[in-house]
Amino acid sequence: MKLRCAVLDDYQGVSLASADWSPLADRVDVRVLREHITDREQLVAAVEDCEVLVVMRERTPVDAELLARLPRLRLLITSGLRNASIDVAAARARGVTVCGTASSPAPPTELTWALLLGLARHVPAEAGAVREGGPWQSTVGADLAGRTLGLVGLGKIGGRVARIGLAFGMDVTAWSPHLTEERAAEHGVRLAKDKRDLLAGSDFVSLHLVLSARTRGLIGEHELRAMRPSAYLVNTSRAGLVDGAALLRALREGWIRGAGLDVYDTEPLPADDPLRTLPNVLALPHLGYVTEGNYARYFGEAVEDIEAFLAGAPVRELG
Which of 122, 286, 297, 301 is catalytic? Predict the structure, then answer.
C-alpha cells in the first residue's frame, strides 16, 4: 500500500512542478493543499490519513496537540533547516522523523533591498499614480549614498545586505548581542557601541536575527522612539523581533517615517489589519524566500528526504 503525503500551504500551486516527484510515484500518493487551514478540526480532517507531511516554513504550526491527533504520521518535512513552529521534541517522542531542506540566503537579501528601495523612492505610490493617471511626480525620494544603514544582525543574510549597502555608498553599521568588532570589520562595517546607538544613528534599520526567547520583542517602544523621525525600519526576518503594538503607534504617530514589512505575527495577514492600509507601510506577503530557485531546492530536497526515509536512512534530520 502506498504512503499518503500532503503538501501544506502551497499558495501558488507550484510544489509538484518545482521538483521531480516521479521517483516516489509507485510508493507515495501526493496531494497538495493550496489554501491555508486555520481551523484545527478542518486541518486534522484534511491530513489525518497521511504518513508524510511537507510544510512550508512556519505557515502551519505543528505542535504537540496536533501531532497527538495524527497517529499515522511518520515523517514531517519542513522547508529550511530551522522551523520554530514545529515541536521537534514532541514529534520524536511520538516516533515521527523530522527533516528539513537547504535554503539560500540570497532571496531574502534581495527582497530586503526591494523593500528598502521601494520605501526610499516611494515606488508603490509613484507606480500607482502612473498606472491610474495620477500626478506626474508627487514625491521626493530619499538618497542612499551617504546615508547610514543600521543592521541588527550580521549573519548570512545581514552580511549580504551589508555588502550591497556599501556598494550603494552607504555608511553601514551593525549590532547584535554577540557581534564583535572583528566580525564587523570582516564585512567592512562599523560596530555600533550598543543597540540604541545603532537605532539613533541610522537612516534605515534592517533586522536580520533569528527569533528566540532572547530576541523576541527586541525592538519595542523604547527602541522605536530612539529612531529618527526620518528613518525607515525594514523587517524581512521574523515579526516577533518587533513589538507589534509599539510599531503601529510609531507608524501612526510619526516616530519613524515608515516601514517595509514581509513578516507578521499572524499570517496570512487578516483582511482588516491596519498594516494593510497605513500609507507609510510597504507590506509584502512574506515573499522573502519565495523564488523559483528556493522552491526547486525545497521541494527537490523534500523528495530526497522522503526517498531517504523510505530507504531507512533519513537525511537532514532536525535536532
Answer: 286
Residue range 175-196: mean pLDDT, rounded = 97
Tell me how far apart the alpha carbons of residues 162 and 166 are, in angstroms, rounded to a whole number. Answer: 6
Task: 252-256: list long-range contacts, CB under 8 Å, 24+ apart.
Answer: 252/278, 254/229, 255/224, 255/225, 255/227, 255/229, 256/224, 256/227, 256/228, 256/229, 256/231, 256/232
**Is residue 36 flagged as an active site residue?**
no
Question: Which one from 110, 221, 267, 304 is the annotated catalytic residue?
Answer: 267
Q: CB neighbours of 128 closer than 8 A, spacing ≥ 6?
A: 134
- Only one residue has cell 502506498, namely 2
> What average pLDDT does range 176-180 have in this prediction?
96
Is-catalytic flag, 160?
Answer: no
- Residue 319: band (very low, low, confident or very high) from pLDDT cuts 50, 70, 90: confident
Environment class of 268 (CB within 10 Å of its CB; exposed 0-12, middle 13-18, buried 19+): middle
Cα distance between residue 119 and residue 81, in whole Å: 31
Mark whether 286 is an active-site residue: yes
Q: Which of 59, 238, 257, 297 is catalytic?
A: 238
**According to the 3-state scheme, what is the secondary structure of 264-280?**
CCCCCCCCCCHHHCCCC
Return the bridge partners of 62, or none.
86
